[in-house]
């Protein structure tokens, strides 16, 4: 009986002891797990705050540029930030590793977001944050070009005879931004038609060939012509009278093939011809190329693309020439002095330009000339007068504006996403 009780007691003791061992093992295991979780949480927390600190450090540096008065720094910053992530900060210590990338995204015409992504790792535990910094964009004011003291502005080079005369300012690369490359830009015909300031509007489909005397416009009215092709003047000794104010938009090219007198009795400010040359032909505007013709033109030519080539045997020209093209050639062939050239402004900053205006007795007047490379014939020097008022010519120089640069500002604390 006693033996049975002792055996039962031993079994009970072993069972209790086994339970205690299992409980102890579980308790120790739980303590180890909790300790590991605590260490993991510490590493995770450290990584998060390191990542956040990295983002804040880069944000502070960006904001400092916006506090400074010089807007050039802001423009350079926005221009240099890519639309894909670029690494701007990298740091490694024995406790953590930090990487910070930034990039930008266009939100709208007046908003840009700078995104700052910061990632940190501590003991194989990584955390990352992304800060969004909204940048407001406003348009700066357009600035009217001041042409300065020299009548000729060469953005790259000029003939030595012009330099010797002291007529030329050579701007060089640093000054080119003062002179916009495209002051006449193509707009669709629908936009031009809807936006044009005209009492009377005409659409002419296809080429417009003028072979007889003609009248453009109407007395006391603003008339707009839209030519869905080329303008070809192919009538010898014809006259084109201009009544009121006339604007002509030419999708193609403008070609004077025969003697012509355009707006001879009118004011140059009343006639503006916009040559788009949308097919990118070699010549956008040409007169007398390869032929001896006499032409009169009182008005203003705007050429979007292609060569401008005006070559006349006897020339009577009053107005301005504005071109985005890469070549401009203006020549009077006759040396008899029967030319009367009054050009307020030749503005072609992309052009290799050659001006060969002859004449022994008549004076030819220019206001300002702006081109990339400018050549002048020697004969031009004696009978060419530069005068911004164009005496007797009745020509007004059109204003040329440098487009206002965008202004960037930060008006938000930003947010994490």
Summarize the structure.
With 417 residues, the protein is an alpha/beta fold.
Can you walk me through this structure?
The protein is α/β, with parallel strands linked by helices and 417 residues long. The chain folds into two domains: 39-140 and 409-416; 146-398, no CATH class. It is built from five helices and 26 strands. The protein has helices at residues 2-67, 71-80, 160-165, 189-195, 380-383; strands at residues 86-92, 97-108, 111-122, 125-139, 143-144, 152-158, 168-170, 200-205, 208-210, 214-228, 231-233, 238-250, 254-256, 260-262, 271-275, 283-287, 294-303, 307-312, 314-323, 327-332, 340-356, 364-376, 384-386, 401-402, 406-409, 415-416. The longest helix is centred in the first third of the chain and has 66 residues, at 2-67. It is elongated. The chain starts with a helix and ends with a strand. Residues 1-6 and 16-34 have low confidence and may be disordered.
Number of helices: 5
- Class by SSE composition: alpha/beta
Percentage of helical residues?
10-25%
For the sheet with most strands, the description reads:
18 strands, parallel
The radius of gyration computed from the alpha-carbon positions, rounded to a whole number of angstroms, is 38 Å
Number of strands: 26
Mean pLDDT: 82
Q: How many domains make up the 3D coordinates?
A: 2
| Regions with little confidence, pLDDT below 50 for 5+ residues | 1-6, 16-34
Distance N to C terminus = 78 Å
Instruction: Specify the overall morphology.
Output: elongated
Q: Please indicate the percent range of residues in DSSP E strands (runs of 2 or more).
A: 35-45%
């Amino acid at each position: 009986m006693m033996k049975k009780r002792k055996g039962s007691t031993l079994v009970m003791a072993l069972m209790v002891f086994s339970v205690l061992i299992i409980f102890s093992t579980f308790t120790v295991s739980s303590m180890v797990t909790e300790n590991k979780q605590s260490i993991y949480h510490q590493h995770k927390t450290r990584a998060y705050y390191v990542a956040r600190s990295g983002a804040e450090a880069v944000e502070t540096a960006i904001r400092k540029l916006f506090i400074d008065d010089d807007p050039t720094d802001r423009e350079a910053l926005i221009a240099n930030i890519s639309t894909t992530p670029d690494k701007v900060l990298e740091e490694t210590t024995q406790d953590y590793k930090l990487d910070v990338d930034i990039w930008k995204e266009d939100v709208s015409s007046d908003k840009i977001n700078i995104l700052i992504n910061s990632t940190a790792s501590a003991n194989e535990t990584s955390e990352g944050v992304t800060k969004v910094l909204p940048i407001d964009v406003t348009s700066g004011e357009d600035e009217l070009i001041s042409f300065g003291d020299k009548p000729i502005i060469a953005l790259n080079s000029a003939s030595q005879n012009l330099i010797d005369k002291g007529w030329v300012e050579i701007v060089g690369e640093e000054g080119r931004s003062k002179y916009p490359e495209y002051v006449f830009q193509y707009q669709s015909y629908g936009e031009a038609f809807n936006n044009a300031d005209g009492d009377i509007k005409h659409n002419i489909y296809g080429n417009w060939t003028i072979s007889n005397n003609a009248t453009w416009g109407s007395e006391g009215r603003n008339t707009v012509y839209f030519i869905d092709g080329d303008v070809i003047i192919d009538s010898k000794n014809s006259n084109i009278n201009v009544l009121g104010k006339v604007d002509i938009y030419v999708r193609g090219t403008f070609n004077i093939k025969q003697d012509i007198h355009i707006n001879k009795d009118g004011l140059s400010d009343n006639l503006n011809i916009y040559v788009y040359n949308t097919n990118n032909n070699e010549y956008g505007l040409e007169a007398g190329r390869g032929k001896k013709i006499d032409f009169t033109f009182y008005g203003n030519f705007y050429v979007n693309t292609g060569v401008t080539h005006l070559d006349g045997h006897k020339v009577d020209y009053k107005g301005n020439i504005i071109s985005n093209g890469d070549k401009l050639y203006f020549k009077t062939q006759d040396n008899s002095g029967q030319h009367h050239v009054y050009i307020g402004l030749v503005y072609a900053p992309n052009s290799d330009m050659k001006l060969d205006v002859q004449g022994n007795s008549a004076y030819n007047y220019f206001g300002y000339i702006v081109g990339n490379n400018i050549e002048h014939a020697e004969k031009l020097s004696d009978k060419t007068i530069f005068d911004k008022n164009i005496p007797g010519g009745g020509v007004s120089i059109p204003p040329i504006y440098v487009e206002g640069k965008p202004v960037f500002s930060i008006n938000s604390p930003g947010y994490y996403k």
